[in-house]
Structure formats: structure tokens, C-alpha cells
TrEMBL record:
Sorted UniProt keywords: Amino-acid transport, Cell inner membrane, Cell membrane, Membrane, Transmembrane, Transmembrane helix, Transport
Source taxonomy: Bacteria, Pseudomonadati, Thermodesulfobacteriota, Desulfovibrionia, Desulfovibrionales
Family label: Belongs to the binding-protein-dependent transport system permease family. LivHM subfamily.
Annotated compartments: Cell membrane
Gene source species: Pseudodesulfovibrio sediminis
Topology class, membrane: Multi-pass membrane protein
Keyword flag Phosphoprotein: no
Transmembrane segments: 12-35, 42-62, 68-92, 104-127, 147-170, 191-218, 224-246, 253-273, 279-299
Name listed for the protein in its UniProt record: Branched-chain amino acid ABC transporter permease
Length: 305
């Protein structure tokens, strides 16, 4: 039983990372019908931004304590990462949207933006891996053979809080209503006096900020940074969003945790090495899509990419 509980906690932690990133994918797709393949690299940028902020705040010129550095770094990282996402939207996506470019070209542009972020990081900071500072002193609680850390609890609680906040914004606020309206008919929304560009920018702000938060929490949990750290986890989060039902917030959240449980469950199975984790995880997710192509919570769409 202790072994089962321990693996459930590990799965909840990994699922939280996937869910935070998948929410950004599904937000942008829900509003623009755009798969922002650069989103995983925005997660990576968020981790590096958090590293830079922590270095400045912990340095001799300011000298904040690690705990206060964490408190200040969270909103700053989310804000600056949101600026990166908005910049991509203004420079790369908006001109194509205004010219009526085919969605395929926008998807290719998103892929190129991801590569630009990766190799710009590589060119500026080099290929050397960086060690993220310890901002929160690790506390370990033992319940029998089950080990729980305060950082693991923070990650899980943060993912749940973000989902609750996002669900409230989308379902209970006027700007959320506008976001849902654009997903239904982006041509009629401007005729109703709603600034479509502002809504799109707000969508990128939310998605990128959540990716930045995920980058910070991931760097604190696994404190080694490298320029390509967002590639694989970004693809996994995208697959989680698709399995949950791309465009559906609840689907992205559930899909992220489902992927986390599958991966940890495969590793925990006796006789299987950790190298089989991705093979089994993707195979199971493929079977789910065979059974329900629209995802767990997705609805059939008349438009295709």
C-alpha cells in the first residue's frame, strides 16, 4: 500500500507539470484553432527567466533570502514569460492571421519559433547545463514508507489552483465569454464591439504565464537547466491535451494527470525499465485516441488543420 501511495504522489507531481503546460496549448487552440508548438520552449524560457531572477535577487546587490526570492520570483517569472508569449504572437502569428494565411503555415511558423527560442538560448548561454538555486528548504515528511516533500505538495497545489482560476476566468467572466465566443465565430465577435486582438493577447498572456510557472516549479524540482529541456515535455503535454480533448480546459487538466499516472505506473511495474516509460505511455495514449479520436472530453469539429 505504501508503494502504491508513493507512486500516486509521484504521478500527481509529474501530471501537474504536464497539466500546467497542456492548459496553455488548449487555451490557444480553443481561441485561435492554433497549435502553438513553441509552447514547450516557452516553458524552457520560463525556467531560465526564473534562474536569472533568482540569481539577481540572491546576489549581493539585493541579498534576499531564498524564501522571499521564491515569493518574488513567481509573479516576475510569470509576467516576463507572458511577455515572451505575447511577443511571439505579435511578431510571428498576428501578421499571418491578418493576411489570412492557411493554418498549416501558422503551425510551421510555431515550430520555427520554438527552434529560434532553443538555439537563441544555446547561442547566448551556451550548451553548459546550469544548476538552479535552492529557493525553498526541502522538508521531508515520512508516513510509514511514504515520503512526501513540501515542494511536491506545492507543485500539486499550484496545478490545481491554476485550473480552478482558469476555469473561473473562462466560465464566469466577460473576457472568458469573449474567448469562448471567438472560438465559435471569430468573424462575428468584432461586429459586437469586442476587441479580438486584446482577447487573443490575453489568451497568450494566460497560457505563457502558466508555462512560466511550470518552468519555475520544474526547475526547483529538477534543478538542472539546458536549452532543449522544453522539447520533450512540451510534446508530451501537447499529446496530453489532445488525449484530454484539445480546446477543452478540463480535458487538458485530466490528460496531463493521465499521462503522469501512465508514465509512473509503467516505471513502477516490476520487470520494466524506465526506458520503456515513453514507449508504453504513448502506446496507451494512441489506443485511447483510436477508441475516441476527439479525446476524452473533446467534441467533433467541422474545421481541420
Amino acid at each position: 500500500m505504501d508503494f502504491l501511495i508513493q507512486n500516486i504522489l509521484n504521478a500527481l507531481q509529474w501530471g501537474s507539470f504536464y497539466a500546467l503546460i497542456a492548459l496553455g496549448y488548449t487555451l490557444v487552440y480553443g481561441v485561435l484553432r492554433l497549435i502553438n508548438f513553441a509552447h514547450g520552449d516557452i516553458f524552457m524560457v520560463g525556467a531560465y527567466i526564473a534562474f536569472g531572477i533568482s540569481g539577481v535577487l540572491l546576489g549581493p546587490s539585493i541579498g534576499l533570502s531564498p524564501l522571499w526570492t521564491f515569493v518574488v520570483a513567481v509573479p516576475l517569472t510569470m509576467a516576463l514569460t507572458a511577455c515572451v508569449g505575447v511577443t511571439l504572437e505579435r511578431i510571428a502569428y498576428r501578421p499571418l492571421r491578418r493576411k489570412g494565411a492557411h493554418r498549416l503555415y501558422v503551425v510551421i511558423t510555431a515550430l520555427m519559433c520554438g527552434f529560434i527560442l532553443e538555439y537563441s538560448n544555446l547561442a547566448v548561454l551556451g550548451a553548459e547545463r546550469l544548476k538552479f538555486p535552492e529557493l525553498i528548504q526541502k522538508s521531508i515528511w515520512h508516513m510509514g514508507d511514504v515520503t512526501i516533500t513540501n515542494l511536491k505538495v506545492i507543485v500539486i497545489v499550484a496545478a490545481i489552483a491554476v485550473f480552478v482560476l482558469l476555469n473561473f476566468i473562462v466560465t464566469k467572466t466577460k473576457i472568458g465569454m469573449a474567448m469562448r465566443g471567438i472560438s465559435y465565430d471569430k468573424f462575428a465577435i468584432p461586429l459586437m464591439g469586442i476587441p479580438i486582438d486584446f482577447i487573443i493577447v490575453f489568451t497568450f498572456v494566460l497560457g505563457s504565464a502558466f508555462a512560466g510557472l511550470a518552468g519555475l516549479l520544474y526547475a526547483m524540482s529538477y534543478p538542472i537547466l539546458e536549452p532543449f529541456m522544453g522539447m520533450l515535455i512540451g510534446w508530451k503535454a501537447f499529446i496530453a491535451a489532445v488525449v484530454g480533448g484539445i480546446g477543452d480546459i478540463k480535458g487538458a487538466f485530466v490528460g496531463g494527470f493521465l499521462l503522469g499516472f501512465i508514465e509512473v505506473g509503467v516505471v513502477a511495474m516490476p520487470g520494466l525499465e524506465s526506458t520503456y516509460r515513453d514507449l508504453f505511455a504513448f502506446s496507451i495514449l494512441l489506443i485511447i485516441l483510436w477508441v475516441k479520436p476527439t479525446g476524452l472530453f473533446g467534441m467533433p469539429q467541422s474545421t481541420k488543420i
